[in-house]
Write a structure and sequence with these properties.
Length: 395
């Protein structure tokens, strides 16, 4: 039931109905992914490195600034359009999906929401033109318990001096701008947390070890060392001591992007499975002619559709300014399961070939795993959902 203060909309269309603009955008993202990303997927996965010229293309085509208003040089699109692009990119390569996901749904999104006008005028045109962004919250001893972070920010005249270590920072290798969360006083608990805009050239900022991962291998994941890193006070993002709000509210929105990534992984694995089932012959006929395979593909298609509907619904609610946190957590929780299940069964549809790196589906299975972990593990999503359903007045 809708909250009483928000009037219902006119009869809404089906969630997968797109506007003309969204439809054109989705078709362009799909064609771009097939033409420009697909040829590099295997080598990027093997080498564990994202192709810089591809990131340059993402900037040139506006995929790094989908949600940034045109006034700051961006594409001026909606959050929903970012979700469409993340899904399309992830259907060919989840690493490509997360590059544009972090840039749009975490970094630009946080700046649009919390930065001063002056900060927006400085940083958004860069994020639009050529600067990759990264979001540095997690630490060695603080993951799910994000507000237990230990990185300190000491007030020192017209700057803060940051000391600590961040872990698992996506895009860190390529990034020119980091949103770094630190505490001005650990005794204040979450009320000490403050967000900072830290540029790559800042003294005392060191991008450390890059992880060698199971999946999304091309996406860089690095530690970040802050060793007396001096950040001007003009680069505090949001209010001092209100960094916890920046973190929570950005991640509430960002997890819709991860649901889109998971949906894309599932859709991509499913498409490969269908194409393979139509051409692989056993017992004198294509395996797609066996009812068992048909039912398996139908079941997986149903799961992909459900994942997409949940993702689109959460994104539409967010764009409409309606409550969306429960729907976003449910979408991430569910879509990450669908991604893993569909990718796993796609491997089975391929039989022995699916188990080898010569064929594309095993990578989808490896890539799917991360969607259950980052931007809040599945248990953390359940915790959010449980809190919201148990406190709701209207069940
Ligand atoms: C590839 C990759 C990219 C990442 N990118 C970023 C990034 O860009 N920026 C960033 O800040 N972070 C990033 N992360 C970090 C990610 O968000 C954390 O790994 C995640 O939040 C989990 O934290 P943790 O690894 O410390 O696990 P832990 O918090 O130690 O959790 C371990 C297990 O315990 C469970 N658990 C913990 N607490 C509870 C509880 N109260 N109730 C029930 N179960 C619980 C968890 O669900 C999990 O199963 C990334 C991680 C990876 C692997």
């Amino acid at each position: 039931m809708e909250p009483p203060s928000i009037p219902p909309l006119a009869t809404p269309a089906g969630l997968t109905n797109l506007t003309e603009e969204e439809h054109l955008f989705q078709a362009a993202a799909r064609a771009f992914a097939a033409r420009e990303i697909t040829p590099h997927v295997k080598e990027m996965d093997r080498s564990g490195a994202f192709k810089q010229t591809l990131i340059d293309d993402f900037f040139a085509q506006g995929y790094m600034s989908i949600i940034v208003p045109e006034a700051y040089g961006g594409a001026g699109g909606s959050f929903f359009m970012a979700v469409l692009a993340i899904e399309e990119f992830s259907s060919v390569d989840a690493s490509a999906g997360v590059v544009i996901d972090v840039q749009n749904t975490l970094v630009s999104n946080a700046i649009l929401r919390w930065a001063t006008e002056e900060q927006k005028r400085i940083f958004l045109p860069r994020l639009t033109r050529d600067t990759v962004g990264a979001y540095a919250l997690s630490e060695p001893n603080s993951g799910s318990d994000a507000f237990a972070l230990e990185t300190r920010a000491r007030d020192d005249g017209d700057s803060f001096v940051l000391d600590g270590r961040k872990l698992w920072i996506t895009n860190a290798q390529e990034a020119g701008l980091f949103i770094v969360f630190a505490t001005i006083n650990r005794e204040l608990g979450y009320r000490g947390i403050t967000a900072f805009l830290v540029e790559r050239g800042a003294t005392g900022l060191i991008v450390g070890k890059k992880e060698d991962k199971l999946g999304i291998r091309a996406s860089s994941t690095c530690e970040l060392i802050l060793d007396h890193c001096r950040v001007p006070k003009a680069q505090v993002l949001g209010d001092i001591s209100k960094g916890y709000k920046v973190a929570i509210e950005t991640l509430n929105e960002g997890r819709i992007g991860i649901a889109a990534q998971a949906t894309g992984i599932a859709a991509g694995a499913w498409r490969h499975a269908v194409a393979y089932a139509k051409q692989r012959r056993q017992f004198g006929r294509p395996i797609a002619e066996f009812q068992a395979l048909q039912f398996q593909l139908a079941r997986l298609a149903t799961e992909v559709e459900a994942a997409r509907l949940m993702t689109y619904n959460a994104a539409r609610l967010k764009d409409a300014g309606r409550p969306f946190v429960k729907e976003a957590a449910m979408a991430k929780y569910f879509c990450s399961q669908v991604a893993e299940r569909v990718a796993s069964e796609a491997v089975e549809v391929y039989g022995g070939y699916g188990f080898t790196r010569d064929y594309p589906v095993e990578k989808y299975l490896r890539d799917s795993k991360i969607t259950k972990i980052y931007e809040g593990t599945s248990f953390m999503q359940l915790q959010t959902i449980a809190k919201l359903i148990l406190s709701a007045q209207d069940l």
